[in-house]
Structure formats: C-alpha cells, structure tokens
C-alpha cells in the first residue's frame, strides 16, 4: 500500500471513529434517563418485601428498571409519614404511597382482607415515575388524550368521575398525571392505544386491575351492606312506631271498654241478660287475644331491628379496623420486620 493510500485509510478511519463517537453521544443524550435508570436499578438492593411486590406486579423489563431505579421503600412504621411529608394530602382517604424526588415510598398494609393494595399502590406510583420520564411535549399530548377519554367515560361511569373529583383542585397537567395513574391501575376496559401505552410497564395489566377490583370490592360491599341495613332499619323503625301508636290506642280503648263492662256487671245490668253478657265478654276476649298477637309481632320486629343494629355495629367495627390498617398516622414508630 502506498503512502497516499495509507493516509487515505487513516483519514477514513478517523472520520469513522468520529462518527461512531458522535453516535454514542447522540444515543447517550437520547437515552440519558434510561441509562441513568439502568445503573440506579443495578445499584439498588431490594429487600424481601420489595422483591415480593415486584414479583406480584408482573412488570416488563422497562417497568422493573424504572421501579427499582426509584429505590422503592415499603414501610409499615411512622417513618413512612416522614418520607411522604411533602406530598399533597388534600386527597380524601389515607395516603398509601407517594412518588417524590424520584423515589417511591409505600405504606405496608398486611391485612389479608385487602391483599393487593400495596401492589396496586406501587403500580400507581410507578406510573407517576413513568410520567415524569416523558418529555414535556409527550406529556402534553398524552394529557389531552387522557382527559378526552376521561370525559367520554365519566358520563357513563359516575364512580370514575367521583374518584377523580379529589384531584379537581390540581392544574390540568397535574390532573392528567393522576388520571394517568388511576386509569392504568383501576380501569379494565381501555382503548387499544392506551393499553399499548401501559404495556411499556406492565406485562399483565388486567391482573393488576383485578387486584384493585378485589380489595376495592371489600369496601364497596361493606358500604352497600351498611346502606341496605340502614334503609331496612329506617323502614322497619317507621313501621314499628306507627303500629306501636295504633297498638297503644287499641289497648287504651280496650281498657276503657273492659272497665265499662266490669262496672255494668257490678251494677248487675246483665242479671237478666246472660246472652248479652257472654257476647260482650267474648268480644273483649277476642280483642285481648288480638292485642297479644299484635304485641308479639311488634316485639318480634323490635328484636329483628336490634339484630340489624348489631350487624350494622359489626360492619362499622370491621370498617374501622380496615381504616386503621390504612392509617399511617396510627403506625408504630419502629418499622415492622422486613418492611
């Protein structure tokens, strides 16, 4: 190879190396967050509880990388409140998780009656992390489509509208952020474009929503049963009070008629009217028997009312127990084992 050819090869190689270096720089800029997440996730040592929740979430490689990159904590102690102290607590109910400073913090709920609530909360916060990783233009475009989908669905799904009402005070962008997390974890029937969007993070979003439906149903059933009991009790109470008033009037009338009959008998008015005596006494006996049956019926309904009240009290206690499980303000100061 001649000197001129050698110089030409070196020149071409130099350009190729420069182009390759430029390509690496462009790739690094374009995938900067992904690279950062990769190393952050690799440097995080998840404890047993986090590993358990991670397995249950059935995340894609991207979802798992983002989740672990946020160095998630699952804490059943009062320390959770410190971790999420800077989060907007205007939402109704209890705070079970937060995404703040690119960290996910979850409150550990271990009651078997509401299994899945930690996993669904983790997914909700993961979607906040995913939202934060989108470009502003992508977020704005997605936010418009999400709000349009919400308005379309909310007319036929008042429960969804009520669910999102707690975020009405937020800006449009913040509302879209919350809607993004709610639709992704709590609503099963979504359009294909949105399912494809969530498939970035979840291998089986349907299983995740099923978990939400399962524990959400516990609270819904408690409320529905309590509402039904209260309605039945109100109807029964009104009926018993009406019948008790009628019974009291009937007893008073019976006592007056019985007293008059006794007085007439003492005055010997029936001495020569034995058939009249037997007729009136028979009528009074029938009325007495009817009053006794009415009283028994009233007592039976009162007993039933007390049974309904006992059941309502039991439901209230169950609801209070579950509420305490979700109330991080009541958590112990120290962390639970493996939290």
Characteristics of this structure?
4% strand; mainly alpha; 3-stranded mixed beta sheet; 339 residues
> How many domains, as an integer?
2
Proportion of beta-strand residues? under 5%
Radius of gyration: 36 Å
Give the overall form.
elongated
Physical arrangement of strands within the biggest beta sheet? 1-3-2
Order of helices and strands: HHHHEHEEHHHHHHH
**Termini separation:** 69 Å
Helix segment count?
12
Instruction: Count every beta strand, where a strand is a DSSP E run of 2 or more residues.
Output: 3
Keywords: Coiled coil, Membrane, Transmembrane, Transmembrane helix
Describe this structure in words.
- With 339 residues, the protein is mainly alpha-helical.
- It folds into 2 domains: 39-215; 217-330.
- The chain is 72% helix and 4% strand.
- It has helices spanning 3-30, 32-42, 48-57, 61-69, 79-83, 117-132, 136-154, 158-165, 172-186, 192-198, 205-266, 274-326, and strands at 73-75, 97-100, 103-107.
- A 3-stranded mixed β-sheet has the order 1-3-2.
- β2 and β3 (103-107) form a beta hairpin.
- α6 (117-132) crosses α9 (172-186) and α7 (136-154) crosses α9.
- The longest helix is centred in the last third of the chain and has 62 residues, at 205-266.
- The chain starts with a helix and ends in a 13-residue tail after the last helix.
């Amino acid at each position: 190879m001649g000197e001129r050819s050698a110089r030409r090869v070196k020149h071409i190689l130099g350009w190729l190396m420069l182009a390759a270096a430029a390509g690496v720089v462009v790739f690094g800029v374009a995938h900067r967050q992904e690279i950062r997440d990769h190393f952050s996730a690799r440097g995080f040592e998840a404890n047993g509880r986090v590993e358990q929740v991670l397995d249950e979430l059935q995340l894609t490689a991207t979802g798992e990388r983002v989740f672990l990159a946020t160095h998630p904590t699952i804490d059943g102690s009062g320390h959770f409140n410190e971790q999420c102290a800077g989060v907007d607590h205007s939402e109704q109910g209890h705070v079970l998780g937060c995404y703040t400073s690119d960290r996910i913090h979850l409150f550990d709920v271990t009651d078997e009656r509401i299994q899945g609530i930690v996993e669904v909360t983790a997914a909700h916060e993961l979607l906040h992390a995913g939202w934060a990783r989108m470009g502003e233009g992508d977020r704005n475009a997605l936010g418009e489509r999400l709000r349009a989908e919400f308005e379309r669905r909310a007319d036929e799904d008042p429960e969804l509208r009520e669910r999102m009402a707690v975020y009405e005070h937020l800006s449009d962008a913040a509302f879209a952020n919350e809607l993004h997390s709610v639709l992704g974890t709590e609503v099963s029937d979504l359009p294909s474009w949105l399912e494809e969007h969530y498939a970035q993070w979840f291998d089986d979003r349907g299983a995740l929503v099923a978990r939400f439906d399962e524990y959400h149903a516990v609270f819904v059933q408690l409320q529905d049963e309590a509402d039904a009991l209260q309605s039945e009790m109100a109807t029964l109470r009104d009926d018993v009070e009406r019948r008790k008033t009628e019974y009291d009037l009937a007893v008073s009338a019976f006592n007056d008629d019985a007293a008059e009959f006794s007085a007439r008998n003492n005055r010997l008015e029936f001495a020569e009217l034995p058939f009249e005596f037997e007729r009136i006494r028979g009528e009074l006996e029938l009325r007495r028997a009817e009053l006794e049956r009415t009283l028994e019926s009233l007592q039976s309904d009162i007993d039933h009312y007390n049974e309904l009240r006992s059941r309502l009290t039991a439901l209230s206690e169950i609801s209070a127990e579950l509420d305490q499980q979700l109330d991080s303000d009541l958590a112990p100061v120290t962390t639970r084992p493996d939290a």
